[in-house]
Write a structure and sequence with these properties.
By secondary structure, this protein is of the alpha/beta class. It has two domains: 219 residues, Rossmann fold, CATH 3.40.50; 126 residues, no CATH class. It is built from 14 helices and 14 strands.
Length: 362
């Protein structure tokens, strides 16, 4: 998995227990990101629908959720990865933009990324292997980048891992079918169908995934966009169409309410945290208002270390420290809504893994 802001790595065991205790056979991951949670659900045998608006997230969903390991020509996939790993570097857009103008990748790796990405288009476009190989390339690039995990800046000195050679690996696919959908959560939710379990992990603040991971967007689009600023962001980052209602304190509550209302599910699980724009009471009220009327609601809280940027302070483009170290921890919240018996059962399944009750069941 790539380094990812808002990753639910620590909560996956909790969410897996909730999924198992719910008895669900179908699940929706409406803001899937790296698909980490969707994969946990699929590994339990559920048919999962993974949704995201980001190009790179859609590619991950095509690879880890939509692709069926049992129906994939693994030999052909391994051969393709080996072929791409054998290609010499060929300096192109990535080398010029993200190594010469910026310092996300060392020159030798940037040139290899260019060569591999061109070959994926030339030799595998339209093939079932296409998203799998794109995923392999993004994950390989992430292992040799020189950032703290987001692409709004690169570190002042080269990260040690950046000297390692780019190496693609065969993605670890899961058995069973699934569905990958690219689109705005609010717009697509009403048309996705009914689910036993729906998991929502919306953006929490003003930080935009489109700009935080603009390099991955460009690797998927492969459109050589005009770029700007120290981080050489895509110029379309300035387009209002690339902004999400979830990144504005003014528009986020209505957008989240619309997404919750649009989802048809027996059990809803919403991730949030305690330093964001809505309090626990507001979240519970919002999640309790389901399509079929009021739902039972419980909220669990888990202590969590904050993103590394909060622990090292804030730096200007020249690398000078200009901000103080921030708050070092927060609480990750899981708001669970559904039929009372189901809510009681899934909350009980988490009792042994460090959950603190943020409410009391009625």
């Amino acid at each position: 998995m790539i380094k990812y802001l808002g990753s639910k790595r620590r909560l996956v065991p909790v969410l897996a227990r909730i999924c198992a205790a719910s008895g669900a056979r179908t699940a929706l991951d409406l803001f899937t990101g790296t698909t980490r949670v969707a994969q946990a659900f699929k590994s339990q045998g559920l048919h999962v629908t993974a949704v995201d608006s980001a190009r790179y997230a859609h590619v991950f969903a095509q690879t880890y959720i939509e692709a069926d390991a049992a129906a994939t020509e693994v030999g052909a996939l391994r051969a393709a990865v080996a072929h791409l790993n054998s290609l010499p570097g060929k300096a192109g857009y990535v080398h010029d933009t993200f190594s010469r103008q910026a310092r996300f990748f060392r020159p030798h790796n940037a040139a290899r990324i260019d060569a591999v990405r061109d070959a994926i288009d030339a030799e595998y476009a339209g093939s079932p292997l296409f998203p799998l190989l794109l995923t392999s390339l993004i994950e390989a690039a992430d292992r040799v980048d020189s950032t703290t995990g987001v692409q709004m800046a690169y570190v002042k000195q080269w990260a040690p891992r950046s000297a390692n050679p780019l190496e693609l690996r065969v993605p670890e696919l899961l058995d069973g079918p699934g569905r990958a959908v690219r689109g705005d959560a609010v717009e697509v939710a009403p048309g996705l169908g009914a689910f036993d379990l729906a998991y929502l992990d919306p953006p929490y603040n003003q930080h935009r995934y489109f700009t935080n991971y603009h390099v991955w967007e460009t690797l998927v689009a492969w459109d050589a966009p005009e770029s700007y600023g120290v981080a050489r962001k895509r110029v379309d980052a300035r387009d209002p169409a690339t902004r999400s209602a979830f990144n504005s304190k003014k528009t986020m509550p209505d957008a989240l309410a619309a997404a919750v209302r649009g989802v048809d599910c027996a059990l809803l699980v919403l991730s949030y945290n305690d330093e964001s724009w809505l309090g626990v009471g507001e979240l519970e009220s919002l999640c309790g208002d389901g399509r079929g009327g009021r739902r039972e609601v419980a909220t669990l809280a888990f202590d969590s270390a904050r993103y590394v940027g909060a622990r090292i302070g804030i730096f200007d483009p020249a690398g000078r420290k200009v901000g103080r170290v921030g708050r070092l921890s927060n609480q990750e919240l899981l708001v669970i809504a559904g039929e009372p018996a189901t809510v009681h059962r899934v909350v009980g399944a988490t009792d042994s893994i460090g959950a603190a009750r943020a409410d009391r069941l009625q």
